[in-house]
Design a protein that fits this description.
- The protein is mostly helical.
- The chain has a domain of 202 residues.
- It is 63% helix and 0% strand.
- The chain has ten helices and no strands.
- Helix 7 crosses helix 8.
- The longest helix is centred in the C-terminal third of the chain and has 40 residues.
C-alpha cells in the first residue's frame, strides 16, 4: 500500500513537471495581420446630359409659289439729251469730257503752238554760254518759259475764249462754228510770227497746191512751219548771246598762256568774269525783253 502511494505521488510529479514552465513563460503575442492597401477612388463619371424635351413641330402644308408683281413704271419721263450743236447749253458731262481731252493734248499744243519752245531754248543757250551745266536747273527754266509764253499769248487766249469757248458754252454757236471762230486768233498769231520761207517750204513738201491766201492754209501746214521759224529765231538769239562770253574765254585763255599757267583750266578762271558781266548788264532782263519784243 505504501508502494502504491509512492507510485501515485511519482505519477503526479511527472504529470505536473511539464506544465510548470509552460505556465511560467507567457506565450508570444501573435504577429499583426498585414493591412490591405486602400483601394484608389474610382473616377467620377459625368452625369448624363439632360436633353431638353422635344417639342413637337406643327406640320405645315407646302405653299404654292406666288406670281411676281409687275414692275412699277417710273413716275415721270426721263430724257437724257447731250447737245453738241449749240441748240442749248451743252451738258456738264460733255464739258468735263472735253476738258479732260484737252488736258491730254495740252502738252503737245504748248510745245508746237506757243512760244514755249523758243523761250526754253534761248534760256538753255544762255545757261550754256555762261558755262553753267546744271544751274539753273531745267525745272526752273521750264517754269519760267511757261509763264513767259502765257504772258505773250495772253491777248490771243482771251480772244479765243471770247470768240469760241464762251459762245459755245452759252449755246449761241454750234461745235463746228465755235471751233472755227476760236481757232482764228491762234492762226493770226502763228501767221504773224512765221516766216514766209518756212510756209512755202511746208507747202512744197506737202505736195498740195499753193493756197490763194493765208486763210486757206491748213493747220497741218501752218504748225510745222511755225515750229521751224521758232527754232531758227532761237538759234539766232543764242548766237548773239554766245559772242561776248566767247570773247571772255579767248581773253582768259591768252592771258593764262602768256603767264605760263597752262595747267590752270581757262573755263574755271573765265566763269567768275562771265557771271560778273551777265549781272552788270542785267542779262536776264535783256533776254526776256528781246523774247517778248520778237512777238510784237
Amino acid at each position: 500500500m505504501r508502494r502504491g502511494f509512492v507510485l501515485l505521488l511519482t505519477g503526479l510529479a511527472l504529470a505536473l513537471a511539464p506544465a510548470a514552465p509552460a505556465s511560467a513563460d507567457p506565450a508570444p503575442a501573435p504577429a499583426p495581420a498585414p493591412v490591405a492597401p486602400a483601394p484608389a477612388p474610382a473616377p467620377a463619371v459625368p452625369a448624363p446630359a439632360r436633353h431638353a424635351p422635344m417639342v413637337p413641330v406643327a406640320y405645315r402644308a407646302p405653299v404654292a409659289p406666288t406670281t411676281p408683281a409687275a414692275p412699277i413704271p417710273p413716275s415721270g419721263a426721263v430724257n437724257v439729251n447731250v447737245n453738241v450743236n449749240g441748240e442749248n447749253r451743252p451738258a456738264n458731262s460733255l464739258v468735263i469730257l472735253l476738258g479732260i481731252t484737252l488736258l491730254w493734248v495740252l502738252p503737245a499744243l504748248l510745245l508746237v503752238c506757243t512760244p514755249f519752245t523758243k523761250v526754253f531754248m534761248v534760256l538753255g543757250i544762255a545757261r550754256n554760254a555762261l558755262g553753267l551745266t546744271s544751274m539753273p536747273p531745267n525745272q526752273v527754266l521750264a517754269g519760267l518759259a511757261l509763264f513767259i509764253s502765257l504772258f505773250i499769248m495772253g491777248p490771243t487766249l482771251a480772244q479765243m475764249n471770247e470768240q469760241g469757248l464762251q459762245p459755245y458754252l452759252n449755246g449761241t454757236k454750234t461745235q463746228s462754228q465755235a471751233f472755227e471762230d476760236g481757232i482764228q486768233p491762234l492762226r493770226q498769231f502763228m501767221l504773224k510770227t512765221t516766216r514766209p520761207d518756212e510756209i512755202a517750204l511746208m507747202v512744197r513738201v506737202s505736195g498740195q497746191p499753193t493756197p490763194a491766201n493765208q486763210d486757206d492754209l491748213p493747220m497741218t501746214t501752218l504748225v510745222p512751219a511755225f515750229v521751224l521759224s521758232e527754232l531758227r529765231a532761237a538759234f539766232i538769239i543764242g548766237f548773239v548771246i554766245f559772242i561776248p562770253f566767247i570773247i571772255i574765254d579767248m581773253v582768259v585763255s591768252a592771258s593764262l598762256m602768256s603767264l605760263g599757267m597752262m595747267m590752270l583750266p581757262p573755263v574755271t578762271v573765265a566763269l567768275p568774269f562771265k557771271l560778273l558781266l551777265f549781272v552788270l548788264v542785267n542779262g536776264w532782263s535783256l533776254i526776256i525783253t528781246a523774247l517778248v519784243a520778237s512777238y510784237g
